[in-house]
Design brief:
Shape: globular
Radius of gyration: 19 Å
Oligomer: single chain
Largest sheet: 8 strands, mixed
Helix content: 25-40%
Order of helices and strands: HEEEHEHEHEHHHHHEHEHH
Number of helices: 12
Length: 345
């Protein structure tokens, strides 16, 4: 009861701040009127469909995974798609994709991975892509889902590849949307740094730093007011009462992404792969840490995507020449047409 009361007070404080600012809560897609602060599990931020929780114990920690289980809007096609978000995204940022997929007859499971968004952020956890894959596999088993199409974006693509390697018989199709992990950044010259150093970097996260990075990398130097909702979603976590644990888990994930490459195992992925890539993307973990000589060679997605497609045993590559890291948000109509057309094939 005490925790529930605290969360209600937090949510009311967010709403009160909006009222005192002379505005109303911003609708989805509009720029924020105020700078909200959310709880460590993204309390007070509303998702487009009801959120459920899977409770389990891992590494001695009692954890919860938040997810949306969205049924088909019309006649079901009998297929399930599980969505893995990126590091600077949440299950909610898939909202346009979920709508399109459910209208096409899919059951959609959109997951907030351990340490992200509305899921638990443990104080002590050994992060690995295998562990996150195992957590998600346990969630799907609890829902009676034995096989599905896995679709991962950004770091969710890296996780999707590890999921397909760990549970090969459970993946019908692997869809990768501008996945990171198509290169080994450390082997290319990105220097290692400690989790403590990553934590110090995470502590400096602000709405401005998020917006500036996303404008340049995700949206090819352009900006649409609809993107602001997702900026404030993330920034609100770093402004809230759980900002330290949010930053700490972010640091552990940064270290995982840099030091646990999946790059050397593409040939072992047996599932059919659909690779959807915005060619203007330049994302690379630790790129800012690399020397001026190394930095320009990182995150060259047109080259990386073609090379990866040639190594996956069964792959289809679709490129979007003018789009960046998040084509599903930047140009949803173009992206979703390509997605559905190729899934049907």
């Amino acid at each position: 009861m005490r925790l529930t009361t605290i969360l209600w007070v937090l949510c009311l404080a967010v709403l009160l701040g909006i009222v005192l600012a002379g505005g109303a809560p911003s609708p989805a897609g509009a720029a924020a009127d105020v700078e909200p602060a959310y709880g460590p599990e993204l309390q007070c931020f509303e998702y487009p469909w009801p959120v459920s929780y899977f409770s389990f114990t891992s590494q001695g920690e009692a954890l919860r995974i938040a997810y949306m289980d969205v049924k088909p809007a019309g006649e079901a096609n009998g297929n399930t798609i599980v969505l893995f978000h990126g590091k600077n995204f949440c299950a909610a940022t898939w909202q346009d994709t979920i709508k399109v997929l459910r209208e096409a007859g899919y059951r959609v499971i959109a997951v907030d991975q351990t340490g992200f968004c509305k899921s638990t952020k443990p104080a002590h956890y050994q992060y690995s892509f295998q562990q996150l894959a195992g957590n998600t596999h346990a969630l799907l088993a609890s829902l009676g889902i034995s096989h599905a199409t896995i679709m991962g974006h950004s770091i969710g693509g890296m996780l999707g590849m590890r999921y397909a390697l760990t549970f090969p018989g459970d993946v019908d199709i692997l869809v990768l949307v501008n996945p990171i992990g198509l290169e080994d950044w450390k082997a290319k010259g990105v220097p290692w740094q400690s989790v403590d150093a990553w934590y110090q970097m995470e502590q400096k996260t602000t709405a401005d730093s998020i917006r500036n990075y996303q404008r340049e990398t995700y949206y090819v130097g352009t900006w649409d007011p609809k993107y602001e909702r997702w900026v404030q979603m993330l920034a609100g976590l770093y402004r809230g009462p759980g900002h330290d644990i949010v930053a700490w888990n972010g640091a552990l994930v940064d270290d995982m992404a840099l030091t646990q490459p999946v790059f050397y195992e593409f040939e072992k992925i047996s599932a059919p792969v659909l690779l959807l890539v915005g060619d203007k993307d330049t994302t690379a973990v630790g790129k800012n840490l690399a020397s001026p000589e190394v930095r320009p060679a990182l995150g060259n997605y047109p080259v990386l995507a073609k090379a990866a497609a040639g190594r996956f045993p069964h792959a289809r590559l679709v490129e979007f020449p003018d789009l960046g890291h998040a084509p599903q948000i930047q140009a949803p109509d173009v992206f979703h047409k390509a997605l559905l057309d190729n899934l049907r094939k």
